[in-house]
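Review session, final week

We close the course with one last complete record, chosen because it touches almost every idea we covered. It is Histidinol-phosphate aminotransferase, a protein from Lutispora saccharofermentans with 349 residues. Go through it on your own first, then we will talk.
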Amino acid sequence: MQKVKESVKGLKAYNANQVPFRIKLDANEGKNILFKDISEGLSFGEDFNINFYPDNDAVLLRKEMGGYIGISPSNIIAGNGSSEMIELVIKTFVDKDEAMMSFVPSFSMYSVFSSIYSADFIGVESNEDFSLDMDLMIKKAGEINPKLILICNPNNPTGFLIAKKDIEKLLSEVDSIVVVDEAYMEFAEGSMAQEVLKYKNLIVLRTLSKALGLAAIRLGYMISNEEIINIINNVRSPYNLNAVTQYIGAMALRKKDEITGYVEEVKKERDFLSGELGELPFEVYKSHANFIFFSSGIDDLDKRLKEDGILIRSFSGDLKGYYRVTVGSRAENTELIKSLKEIVKNEKS
């Protein structure tokens, strides 16, 4: 693939021995002296050994991911959250001073990783209502020819959803690697995961932090064609994903009914919370994620909520006065609205 950095082209993937054994003495692993009962206590099974390095290829986990997403495990790499996946893509394809593009505002780590790797980050401004103009992105990409384009869909922090046909148009009209970050896609429609075999320049990112509620285990994955997957595997660090995370992730992905039920609950509560916020003197934006983005003229709204024990996300700079609130349970959402109504009442008095 021509987009690969010259410094990466000669790399070979780290290959660990994945063979049955009676005695394992090949990797300088210590003895399990601290947590001898871990397999029993956490129901990991007798084959789980905390003193051995984890499965370098995350075979069981990728199999479950493939079943969950409807794609072959050979098209998947797993890692420590979407952040590691983003960093891996940049490490593989973007050299110093080469251009990366994304809409702004969007996930802040895109520009952070760009700075870390001395790339040139170029943001394409959203419209006044925070909708995203794909034709503008295509036009700018034609002028700049970036190595990488990152699309967060649904977008964080605004919740805006780009239509699938618009992403397909982007893929067809640019020569860049296009990364579609679908961290919140379970709460929306229009995933590009099934299209990775159709487009040679497409990478899709997913996470277990949102719809599966497993943020603490730090588990994300990328989906792409086998050529890109093989190249990125050459850059990936050995044993990048610990065994506990692999096991919990694999078990969680089997619980599709529970995941679907939770997603539907969030969508219902999202409608409720959005409607309640809309009754207050706020500007509320339609969301396709598990959060709602809104603006308020009340100063330090987040700090006033914090005094009542409620935390929401505030922004600064060009987004000063804008807030993002995660959709909670009905009880949590009701308490939030109650507190907000009290703040609005005090503001008027």
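Two points worth writing down before the exam:
The CA atoms of residues 88 and 236 lie 7 Å apart.
The longest helix spans residues 256-278.
Good luck, everyone.
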